[in-house]
Hints:
Elements: E1 2-6, H1 10-23, E2 28-33, H2 36-46, E3 50-54, H3 62-71, E4 77-82, H4 87-95, E5 100-103, H5 108-122, H6 144-156, H7 163-170, H8 174-185, H9 189-207, H10 215-218, H11 224-235, H12 239-245
Parallel strand pairs: 1-2, 1-3, 3-4, 4-5
Amino acid sequence: MKILIAEDEPRAMRGLRSLITSLSPEYQIVGEAADGSQALELMQATHPDVVFTDLKMPRMDGIALIRAAKAMSLSAEYVLVTAYEEFEVARQAICLGVFDYLVKPITVEDVQRVLARLEAKRSGAEEIQESKGSLKDQYPEAHPLVRKTLHIIEEGYASRLNQKELATTLGISQEYLCYLFNKDVGEPFSKFLKKYRIEAAKRLLSERVVPRDEVPYSVGFSDPKYFGKVFREITGMSVTEYLKMV
């Protein structure tokens, strides 16, 4: 696993690097940056799997770094490091798709836990699995509002689903729904919905129950080209390539 660290405090940088490298020889530090701008340049050069970034840094802070990297379509998981329990910022980060956030001082247990989760996700352990039970039953310990959201996704994925409107329906703010969903499910609402829709599309394509041209509309996409892009993003192959395999 290739890891980049963005941290403006030298002592904190050394400490985090030491913690990470002590856990496994498989964890390779491919870059160290003292600010967000430098981290962005290193991301383009090294293509890390994971970026540990401090929240407050000169020139470009952690949130701005993540926004800029996403705008440039740089693929990585992000772990935000904060000096204080800044809940509002943490919720904002989660809505950006940040994998996790850690509060200083960081312990070896914190780093070990996050990296173990990242390894599980990379190996596919956190992929949506088909189940005979309902979607909400796959997350029995989730917050009741999250379970309601999962039920809505299961019943209405083929229709237009908007996180803001869904939050209003549940009587909570969009940020709070975003926070709860990411915490209990392990990924942002939008990403989960995309993956769920693509899994449904794969079933339709393999069973050939509807014409290929109608599949995007049958799983909630209004633009076939965007569907194709998301299909490749999730599966790693085009629809045509997938059909050759089934």
